[in-house]
Amino acid sequence: MHTGEQYHEFMLASPRDRAVRARFQQLALDLLPAGAAVLDFGAGTGIDAKAYAANGHPTFVFEPAEAMHDCLMRHCHDEIASKSIVAVASPLACTVQAVTANFAVLNHFVDHAVLFEQLSRVVQQGGFVLASLLNPYCLGDARYRWWRANLLNLVRRGHYAIPSESRIHRFAPRIVARAAMPYFRLERLAPRGLGLASELYMFLLFRRV
């Protein structure tokens, strides 16, 4: 598991992860009105936050992991100094048009209901939450024993946890959508259909209602 500077360099060097990040960032930027504020929830080392700020969006960053936060403060030093990026100790410390959570941040939660209730106090009416989650249907993971062992759990319950130190959870989109109600509705899922079999990440767009 990479942390801090190692994670930062790995993500910048990985062609696959750069491609996923570019798609996520472009979707977020296409959805954001000009000059709208955004909260990067689980901001990591600030790679996405730096892109949002560069495109004229006041950006708040919440990152609870100390090693990641320290790297973020170094990587985004100039933006923090100019206040185009503002680090917050709690997501509730800001009000924004959008919340983004890239690279499986929400997979670290057992249940998203409390999180979405909190985010409903952060996201303005008509705003959105955009999240990338690990795709439980990705056939690229079928080579792993844990994936095959949890197929029945996925079908029956729509979610399961991988027995590891981080206890990463995998969720069917309907489970996250149900947890988001009544504050948010699932507006978009990408990819859909057969595309879910080939992509490691799925993007879920939730609209504040």
UniProtKB/TrEMBL annotation:
Taxonomic superkingdom: Bacteria
Protein name from the UniProt record: Methyltransferase domain-containing protein
GO molecular function (one): methyltransferase activity
UniProt keywords, alphabetically: Methyltransferase, Transferase
Keyword Ubl conjugation: no
SUPFAM superfamilies: S-adenosyl-L-methionine-dependent methyltransferases (SSF53335)
Keyword match Transferase: yes
GO BP annotations listed: methylation
